[in-house]
Amino acid sequence: MEGTNPVNKKLAAALSGGAVLVLALSGCSSDDGDDKLNSWAEQVCDAVQPQAKKIEAANAAIQKETSDNSTPAEVQKTDAQAFQDMSDAYKAIGAAVQKAGAPDVENGAKKQQDAVKELNDISSSYASLKAQVDKLDTKDQAKFADGLKDIATELDKLSQSGTDALKTLEEGEVGKAMAKQQSCKAAASSAPAASS
């Protein structure tokens, strides 16, 4: 009996929550801000866009694997690669925010450092999920399904905890400056529809 599919669907659902995170990095309002802040936003948004695409592709791979009747070994391979890609993408976004420096707003340096820490933590969490997937026993369907269930639970937590520092980073002027950037708009529109 194919036992992994319902669990795998849960995994996919949990995962799509994680993608919302990056898209948190694109506001919706626009307002004339100052040039310094706009160039900061442009730098961050340009770096986020390719990473958002990478995260979206990793999501899509897992979603596809859940709709097929894939073997545990296939699911393991796809999920491990997807988690690795996500880990790399969040790390790259963290590096981009670090490189951009503090946004020219009140408490900008603290907001920046909090966001970088958050992004790096998320990157580490995906790396440890990859390690967990790699260790799953693909020969025992029931054990494999249980292992996936645990990973789905962790993913759920990850997608919920991850948005806080980014939300703080893009409050007020920063969000407005980012909303005006074409690349952030593109990142948001390519995301799976999800309420933020």
Can you tell me about this structure?
The chain has helices at 4-23, 35-67, 72-100, 108-135, 141-161, 163-169, 172-179, 182-189. The protein is mostly helical and 196 residues long.
Layout of strands and helices, then pairs:
Elements: H1 4-23, H2 35-67, H3 72-100, H4 108-135, H5 141-161, H6 163-169, H7 172-179, H8 182-189
Helix pairs in contact: 1-2, 1-5, 2-3, 2-7, 2-8, 3-4, 4-5, 4-6
Structural classification: mainly alpha
Q: What is the distance, rounded to the nearest whole angstrom, between the alpha carbons of the first and last residues?
A: 37 Å
Order of helices and strands: HHHHHHHH
Low-confidence stretches: 26-31, 192-196
Reported for the largest beta sheet, the result is: none
Number of strands: 0
Shape assignment: elongated
The fraction of residues assigned to DSSP E strands is under 5%
| Mean of residue pLDDT values | 78
Rg over C-alpha atoms, rounded to the nearest angstrom: 18 Å
- Percentage of residues assigned to helices: over 70%
Tally of contiguous helical segments = 8
Summarize the structure.
The chain has 196 residues and is mainly α. Helices cover 79% and strands 0% of the residues.
Q: Features of this protein?
A:
elongated, mainly alpha, disordered C terminus, 196 residues, single chain, 8 helices
